[in-house]
Amino acid sequence: MSKTTDDILNNAMRLSTTERAEIAAALLASLDGEPEDAVEAAWAAEIQRRVELVRSGEAKGRPWSEVRERLERRRE
């Protein structure tokens, strides 16, 4: 690592967990390049569709305890 990169990393490590997570997310997103308009529009439409299902009562959630139990069984 260059001295500048090392300095930036050392300074970043002094930040709070939340601040470091925000920086990490921004850095990772920057590696993806520019978002594609069609993909972004498709995701926005899917999110809206799911929100409407929840609001209308058509989508049924599961209790966290049930989901956690199912995930724990998968790990075994």
How does this model look, in words?
- By secondary structure, the chain is mainly alpha-helical.
- It folds into two domains: 33 residues; 39 residues, no CATH class.
- Helix content is 75%, strand content 0%.
- The protein has four helices and no strands.
Structural class: mainly alpha
Percent of residues in helices comes to over 70%
Residue-averaged pLDDT? 94
How many domains comprise the coordinates? Answer: 2
Distance between the termini: 40 Å
Task: Give the helix tally.
Answer: 4
Characterize the biggest β-sheet. Answer: none
Q: How much strand content do the residues show? A: under 5%
What is the global morphology? flat
Number of strands: 0
Given as residue ranges, the uncertain stretches (5+ residues, pLDDT < 50) are none
Q: What is the succession of H and E elements?
A: HHHH
Please give the radius of gyration in angstroms: 20 Å
Map the helices and strands.
Elements: H1 3-12, H2 17-31, H3 37-56, H4 64-75
List keywords for this structure.
single chain, flat, 76 residues, mainly alpha
Q: Can you summarize this structure?
A:
This protein is mostly helical. The chain has helices at residues 3-12, 17-31, 37-56, 64-75.
